């Protein structure tokens, strides 16, 4: 276990994971949320990982934004608890699932969404790329193209789901949906703007920005999350 020292800050356990099946990560999140609801003193958690190809629908998402027949597809599709419409995950996209107790931060969902956007914007700035917000929409855009999607669920002020930043994925899977239900905004990846970008570098920058934005002391933990 290694520690990113920042005395006086709340602690956050960070799990640096590789390629994780969506249902496995979903199960981890649910278990961690339950754990934090039962034991509010638990440290915050951040899961950083990638997924094999998978589509997810928010709890109120409209199926009309899916352009394929799920019954004839080899790619998994799941309707989950988060807000938002349909999105796509695949290797080369870095996904972050924060399990935070907002009672220790700020009990304001709009604040939380803007903080997640700020994490991404700070990461992009490291590479000299300007990340923009668009009024009325959630996520981060570069030159009008969406590079990071955000969808959350908060239960008794414990967060789950989170953000996905397109670092160097194959974007072909996005062509089978209307990403986030937005028809007039293209999806992009950071490698289009920074050809030398590496996913592991972005992972490191996300950890730094996340610690800064949420005023956390990050503690890196080896292996899978402990759900006991």
TrEMBL record:
Residues 40-218 form the BPL/LPL catalytic domain. The active site is at residue 180. Pathway: Protein modification; protein lipoylation via endogenous pathway; protein N(6)-(lipoyl)lysine from octanoyl-[acyl-carrier-protein]: step 1/2. Substrate binds at residues 82-89, 149-151, 162-164. It catalyses: octanoyl-[ACP] + L-lysyl-[protein] = N(6)-octanoyl-L-lysyl-[protein] + holo-[ACP] + H(+). In the reaction, the free carboxyl group of octanoic acid is attached via an amide linkage to the epsilon-amino group of a specific lysine residue of lipoyl domains of lipoate-dependent enzymes. Catalyzes the transfer of endogenously produced octanoic acid from octanoyl-acyl-carrier-protein onto the lipoyl domains of lipoate-dependent enzymes. Lipoyl-ACP can also act as a substrate although octanoyl-ACP is likely to be the physiological substrate. This is Octanoyltransferase. It comes from Limnoraphis robusta CCNP1315.
